[in-house]
Amino acid sequence: MHVEPGMVIAPKVAMANMAAVGVLGYYLRDWVDFKDIKKSFLNLARTALAALWFLLMMQFLPHFPVGPSEWHMVSFLIMYLVFGFTPTLYGFAISLAIQATPIFEPQDMVHLGVNFLSLAVPLIVVHNIYKSKVWQITEGDLSKSINRNIKDGINYFDLVKIDTTYYVLMSLMVLFWLSWGGVLAHPAEGWLKFMSSYAINLVIEPLVTVVLVKTLLKFRDNALIENYTTVSQIKCAC
Q1: Residuewise pLDDT in 10s, the chain (238 residues)
Q2: What whole-number distance in Å separates Cα of residue 210 and Cα of residue 68?
Q3: What is the rounded distance in angstroms from the CA atom of residue 100 to the CA atom of residue 110?
Q4: Which of 171, 160, 170 has its CA nearest to residue 130?
């Protein structure tokens, strides 16, 4: 997920930084709505929780270099289902920015835009493909009634499919950074090592997600779960 400093040429880094700002700017109105203070507050709170979760995943779980990049337990699926789309998107950005400070890994500041897009672009694609399958209501519209008895909702195999789509797209983003003007003589070789390392995520992440989401669903009427997570909005065949 983390492309090591020096692996991407300067023009691509500059392009990534501009694109990252554009992505965050584009989704800003979905993230913060000044006409709905409660909705905005809840989104900001979920974003803070998503950023904290991702920072813990990056810093305190095992992570190691694989080829030109680095393996992490991204836990995208947990963040997406528990905190929602825009909190996960901005949570990625905030967490990566914190991680690139002198406290943790300051060398990653060079590729902040690159690493953000490697996570954000697959998230955006997955959300737009699967949102009607995953969510009971239009995300962010908390005024509509929620039908809690969905029989055709997502199941374990749907989670595996969503997870696979995400990690394939994330791996393709890394390949993009390494090729077409990248500094590696044989980018495909390093990329294949990197992509194969994420097979473990496809085994662990859906299982952990099912356990966590089903547990949270048992307490979905609790005010904290209702307000600070999005699990009650999931079409879950649980």
Answers
A1: 677 777 788 888 999 999 999 999 999 989 988 788 888 999 999 999 999 999 988 877 766 566 666 666 788 999 999 999 999 999 999 999 998 998 887 887 889 999 999 999 999 999 999 998 899 854 444 334 334 444 467 888 999 999 989 988 988 888 888 776 555 555 566 667 666 767 777 788 888 898 998 899 889 889 999 999 999 899 876 5
A2: 32
A3: 9
A4: 160
What are 221's two structure tokens? 């009427």
With a threshold of 0.90, does the pTM exceed it? no
Two tokens, residue 238: 């649980």
Topology at the third CATH level for domain 10-233: Arp2/3 complex 21 kDa subunit ARPC3 (1.10.1760)
The answer to whether 218 and 197 are in contact (CB under 8 A) is no
Helices (H) and strands (E) in the chain, counts: 10, 2
Cβ–Cβ under 8 Å, residues 76 and 119: yes
Beta strand spans in 88-196 (E): none
Domain residues of the chain, as ranges? 10-233
Residue 100 DSSP one-character state: T
Give the H/E segment covering residue 70.
strand 69-71
